Amino acid sequence: xxxxxxxxxxxxxxxxxxxxxxxxxxxxxxxxxxxxxxxxxxxxxxxxxxxxxxxxxxxxxxxxxxxxxxxxxxxxxxxxxxxxxxxxxxxxxxxxxxxxxxxxxxxxxxxxxxxxxxxxxxxxxxxxxxxxxxxxxxxxxxxxxxxxxxxxxxxxxxxxxxxxxxxxxxxxxxxxxxxxxxxxxxxxxxxxxxxxxxxxxxxxxxxxxxxxxxxxxxxxxxxxxxxxxxxxxxxxxxxxxxxxxxxxxxxxxxxxxxxxxxxxxxxxxxxxxxxxxxxxxxxxxxxxxxxxxxxxxxxxxxxxxxxxxxxxxxxxxxxxxxxxxxxxxxxxxxxxxxxxxxxxxxxxxxxxxxxxxxxxxxxxxxxxxxxxxxxxxxxxxxxxxxxxxxxxxxxxxxxxxxxxxxxxxxxxxxxxx
Length: 417
Known about the structure:
Layout: H1 7-37, E1 44-45, E2 51-53, E3 55-71, E4 74-78, E5 83-88, E6 95-96, E7 101-106, H2 108-169, H3 174-231, E8 234-236, E9 241-246, E10 253-254, E11 259-264, E12 269-276, E13 288-292, E14 297-305, E15 313-320, E16 333-350, E17 360-367, E18 372-383, E19 387-392, E20 399-401, E21 413-416
Parallel strand pairs: 1-21
Antiparallel strand pairs: 2-20, 3-12, 3-16, 4-11, 5-7, 5-10, 6-9, 7-8, 9-11, 12-15, 13-14, 13-16, 14-15, 16-19, 17-18, 18-19, 18-21
Helix pairs in contact: 2-3
């Protein structure tokens, strides 16, 4: 048979239920708040990043570039005149001498101009000879007339002097003596005039022949020009070296001044290196350099810096101070390093990825025995090929991550495996 429970027991059970519910709600609220205040877990770097240790000591600043070996003496051979490529005598890569013919051109008009210049010069020389003979003949006639007048004057003078003596002795009349003197004076004046005419005639001959001589010399210069142009149809190397390139084809027409070929002197080479324009500002003429030819490293000095940048690089020339190794030839690809300066006592580290000199960056410094890394602000200074100066933010012995950490730009702390 059923036994009725007292009312106090029911009330106690209700109070206990309410109490447990309140406690449960409180516990859930506390846990919710606590979980909400918890920071998210640090991300983990899956791979082992590249690290570097900050050091203090001497740091060698260098810049590096790639390039090629180029001859110091290069001769680009242009076309001396218009023409058509008739024949290519030698091909690229051939050793050539100064008088060796590389290719031949043809120009019929130029041949006709040469013949015309020869005929004109012959005609001018013939005209010069004709004028010389004619003017000399006229001069001789003038000399003969002057000589005759001079002879007549001397005879008249002698007669006048004789008549003057006779007149004083009364042997002839004074009138005859005066007539003799007048005749002598007239011939004296004519003698003076003829001598002046002879002098002017001689000067006129020289002037006339000088003009014709100038015409002959002008035509001779034209002939020499035409001959040199015709000789230029046979294109010669001009120097001893290697024919690097023939830039025309048989049958093509070229204008005067068109580059036809290139000859290089292969025993004197220099390195033409392309340096990033951001690093080229520190390069100066005279700095030491080392060039790797893949068959040895050769020392040299910077001899020239291109004043203009092209495609983000500046070209510099390195002149070698040592003999090149065997196998060095024009257009050989090389790597070069230029020594900018040597810093005696600085704080530096291996260059992080994408680190630029004279900038501020955030680098991850390894902490907790290598299990984590935290981002620290770092001020960078001068840079080299593989190292960069630390101005502020790190201390000697600190280990930093040098790999690309752009995937964790949103975090200040990461875990390391």
